Amino acid sequence: ENKIAFSQLDKVGISIGEDLKEYPDSLFKFLDHLTAANAMGSYVMAASTLVPLMDNNLDKVIAKAREMIIQGNVWHVCDNIAERVFGFATVKYFNQTLPYLRELLKEENIWLKRSAGVAIHYFNKRVRDREDLSAILLGIMEPYVEIKERDVLKGIGWGLKTTGKYHPELVTEFIIRQLKAG
Q1: CB atoms within 10 A of CB 73
Q2: pLDDT tens digits along 2-18
Q3: What whole-number distance in Å separates Cα of residue 21 and Cα of residue 140?
Q4: What is the Cα 16 distance to its own chain's centre?
Q5: Disulfide engineering: 78 pairs with which of 50, 93, 111, 140, CB 3.0-4.6 Å?
Q6: Are 128 and 165 in contact (CB under 8 A)?
Q7: Angle between helices 54-72 and 94-106 (to 10 degrees)
């Protein structure tokens, strides 16, 4: 089996997305065929393909990413799509993406719920100079830190860990609040 680096799949996906961004419905049909292969690389490329569509179709892109995460139904599909779509959207369209992250955390589907933590991880990895925004993201995760679902907790933990790497004082205050509340 030949393996292709994710960075190469990202380049191909972004290129396809750029070429077809004026035809989102056709592009979504293409993504349905691509992800039907249910291969890890197909989801990586599909998620990257959605990035160029965000400027004019954020609602549709978020909906498609949600659909693909549910379809994939496994951690690596969730994480690959969450970083590339929800994470990138949080970096580029912070205020518009916050309501989506809040909704993801309320979902019954564990992978959708996990994806919010993964998106927050991605944001903090890319935007290191906006402690104020990281504090907002910590706030939306706060009600979910004691969740019992292991896979969801891993996503939340990933978001907390990366926030702590770049803003240790925020996470220290967060933990103190949790201990006082508990």
Answers
A1: 12
A2: 788 999 999 999 999 99
A3: 31
A4: 20
A5: 111
A6: no
A7: 20
Which among 105, 106, 47, 34 has a CA at the least distance from the CA of 76? 47
DSSP sequence for the chain:
-----HHHHHHHHHHHHHHHTT-HHHHHHHHHHHHTT--HHHHHHHHHHHGGGHHHHHHHHHHHHHHHHHHH-SHHHHHHHIIIIIIHHHHHSHHHHHHHHHHHHH-SSHHHHHHHHHHHHHHHHH--S-HHHHHHHHHHHGGGTT---HHHHHHHHHHHHHHHHH-HHHHHHHHHHHHHH-
Which residues make Cβ contacts (< 8 Å) with residue 32, sequence separation at least 6?
Answer: none
Amino acid 149 reads E
Tell whether pTM > 0.85.
yes
Q: How far apart are CA 110 and CA 4, in angstroms?
A: 28
Q: How many CB atoms sit inside 10 A of residue 7's CB? A: 9
How far, CA to CA in Å, does 50 sit from each of 19, 28, 82, 116, 165? 11, 9, 12, 17, 29
What's the rounded Cα separation, in Å, for the pair 79 and 135? Answer: 22
C-alpha to C-alpha distance for 52 and 13, rounded to whole angstroms: 9
